[in-house]
Amino acid sequence: MHLEELTEFLEIYYHIKISRFEINKLERKETALDAICNISEANVINFNYTNTAEKLFEISEKQTHLFMDELI
Predict the structure, then answer these.
(1) Do the Cβ atoms of 42 and 63 come closer than 8 Å?
(2) b/e map of 28-67 (b: 16 or more CB within 10 Å)?
(3) Domain count, the chain
(4) What is the per-residue pLDDT across 29-52, written as a single tens digit (0 to 9) for each?
(5) Are strands 44-46 and 64-66 parallel, antiparallel or unpaired?
(6) What's the rounded Cα separation, in Å, for the pair 29 and 7?
(7) Across the chain, which distance is largest between two alpha carbons, in Å?
(8) Which of 15, 39, 48, 53 could form an SS bridge with 59, CB 3.0 to 4.6 Å?
């Protein structure tokens, strides 16, 4: 498989996932992360281009590092 084809397939996959993400709104559920005190003050490395940390844990965009931005 060529890199261009792989990139195209990943873009398609990404758009499918995002459309499902928009349809199925995120809801806060208890997780192991609840054991972390002051999680909203944490810094986050984000690999998936979503605002999940902000929506679910109130971690600001300013405290979120989008890892893939540096690879593209």
Answers:
(1) yes
(2) eeeeeeeeeeeeeeeebebeeeeeebbeebebeeeebebe
(3) 1
(4) 787 877 888 878 888 887 777 777
(5) parallel
(6) 33
(7) 46
(8) 53
Domain span at residue 55 reads 3-70
Is the pTM for the entire model greater than 0.70? no
Distance CA 66, CA 30 (A): 24
Cα(61)–Cα(35) distance, integer angstroms: 22
Instruction: Reduce the secondary structure of the chain to three states and give it as a string.
Output: CCHHHHHHHHHHHHHHHHHHHHHCCCCCCCCHHHHCCCHHHCCEEECCCCCHHHHHHCCCHHHEEEHHHHCC
The residues near 67 (Cβ < 8 Å, ≥ 6 apart) are 45, 46, 47
